[in-house]
Amino acid sequence: MAKPLVLGNWKMNGSIPANAELLKGLRDWDASKVSLGVCPPAIYLPQCQVVLNGSDVAWGGQDMSEHDSGAYTGEISSQMLGELGCQYVILGHSERRQYHAESDELVANKCAAALKASLVPVLCIGESQAEREAGETLAVIERQLMTVINHLGLEAMANTVVAYEPVWAIGTGLSASPEQAQEVHAYIRSRLGDVANSVQILYGGSVKPDNAAELFAKPDIDGALVGGASLKADDFLAIAKAAVR
Hints:
By secondary structure, the protein is of the alpha/beta class. It has a single domain, classed as Aldolase class I (TIM Barrel, Alpha-Beta Barrel). 41% of the residues lie in helices and 15% in strands. It has eleven helices and eight strands. Strands 7-6-5-4-3-2-1-8 form an eight-stranded parallel β-sheet. The longest helix is centred in the middle third of the chain and has 16 residues, at 137-152. The chain is globular, with a radius of gyration of 17 Å. The relative contact order is 0.16.
């Protein structure tokens, strides 16, 4: 299995002084057993680059355009992220799908653009509460995942990260039970063919220090995409330590 990965999605949070304190608390992380990274708002990526350069902690974007350049006001290209030393980029987050009407096809195009620029796409997939209650969880996962696989090809998936984030557990304080998460993670891995064991499959959705170890104990959960808890160094590091195998 791939080495565990714990990524922090700061969402639209942060300030220069608060970031400085947080990043200082993360700089000494030893990534020999668990990879660690942060994805701040794009405006703070230069600060991450300065503070984290030379450390084991990676950084990445929260989104990017499918286009390389051009008249796309407000957008950020993969090359721009690369110039700021980004390793990862979160794509297809449910908040982007919901608030910005991002389709499965657009997310697939963004993943292709990220790979072309040697960035690691963190592909977010997950069902809403209504879809889970209707018994459609795996059908939603199948649609979102296979749109990307069919566009990229299975071999390219070896260079991606997949994050299962049930929409109903994001920012709500609710979390999928370890058993619920494992069922979906196992299904995702079953769709990845020959590259299945090379792909890190993360869980996201109200991950906290007190539920991380139980989630990470499941065989197909390779780490976490952490929201609110990634804004506090002690909590974020506690989650990362819980992923050590």
